[in-house]
Amino acid sequence: MSTIPQTVLDQLELQAIELPSWAFGNSGTRFKVFATPGTPRDPYEKIADAAQVHRYTALAPTVALHIPWDKVDDYDDLRRHAEGLGVSLGTINSNTFQDDDYKFGALTHEDAAVRQKAIDHHLECIDIMHATGSRDLKIWLAEGSNYPGQADLRGRQDRLHESLATIYDRLGDEQRLVLEYKFFEPAFYHTDVPDWGTSYAQVAALGDKAMVCLDTGHHAPGTNIEFIVMQLLRLGKLGSFDFNSRFYADDDLIVGAADPFQLFRIVYEVARGGGLNHPDVAFMLDQCHNVEDKIPGQIRSVLNVQEMTARALLVDTDALRAAQVSGDVLEANRIFMDAFYTDVRPALAEWRESRGLPADPMAAFAASGYLAQIAADRVGGVQAGWGA
Ligand code: AOS
Ligand code: ZN
Ligand code: ZN
Prior knowledge:
Radius of gyration: 21 Å
Largest sheet: 8 strands, parallel, barrel
Keywords: Cytoplasm, Isomerase, Manganese, Metal-binding, Rhamnose metabolism
Bound molecules: D-allose, zinc ion
Order of helices and strands: HEHEHEHEEHEEHEHEHEHHHHHH
Protein name: L-rhamnose isomerase
Helix content: 40-55%
GO molecular function, one term: isomerase activity
Structural class: alpha/beta
CATH superfamily: Divalent-metal-dependent TIM barrel enzymes
Distance between the termini: 48 Å
Strand content: 5-15%
Organism: Agromyces marinus
Strand order of the largest sheet: 1-2-3-4-6-8-9-10
């Protein structure tokens, strides 16, 4: 059995992965949303489910909220509820994609009144962040066009800057704005923030409190995502990750499920660039569980990130560097792959037990009876918001 050096375990102990509240709601495709018995009926129950993930893994101490899906009357009360369950409230996600007024854009819209409405929504999110104690405002924009000639690409980029600058000005000293990019969908011809370069250009023009959010599912097939990770870290602008995995488009499947090696390569570059367990680089999941149980789906996800982090930290960096410098291509690749192929699961199970956690969090959660309990207690759970 492989052993994991204490220096690596020390890093793993610090790891924190934020969970998205919407992962606990029902979601699906435009064809069908399958309901799961026991689905949360409100944000309080979503947080209770998220707390289960943390309880069995000690990996997920915060929960991201989405406004308006998680709107409540009293955010102080929601915060106390979370803290009572051993977790805190994290990133606030805005939503400018489910309102008729935003059919042709929100922060980029031609009409100043529509832009102001979208700006006001973000200002409301910042007010909520003060009550929840959240640091990050995450902005993902569904804006773009479907047909060449439909929109003035340059004008939209300029208006985007103005709108973001107004939002940025309202941030508190300890707060940040993270701007997520996505190459297509829901618009199919052009998207206003399609890639890391555009996100970087926009946030760089705002200031130090604005960073890029990298969603691993938002790239064209074949994109070298770890290269983007390296570059953003090098530029000091990688603010957060939305982890998930994809086979075809924005699939939002369990992180590490589609391509564990890609996850390994990404985490390796995070560690190489000093971004691991660094407060500036938030690890989050952005996933939906359409056909599998949601809480175990999230447990599996954070364990996948932990396992690939352990493997990435096993790379013998001194030997790798020597091989790189001497031009020994095959040896460098062998060293890298050796770490990737190391099965760390038995050693991690043992380590978990030594910390008073279950060796097998999936089995421990299954044995707890929690899913049967919520299925009996909760009737009429809500959709995550997608397609609602
Ligand atoms: C959308 O494709 C993005 O991945 C966003 O991060 C997403 O909208 C998220 O679910 C919060 O709004
Ligand atoms: Zn995302
Ligand atoms: Zn997405």
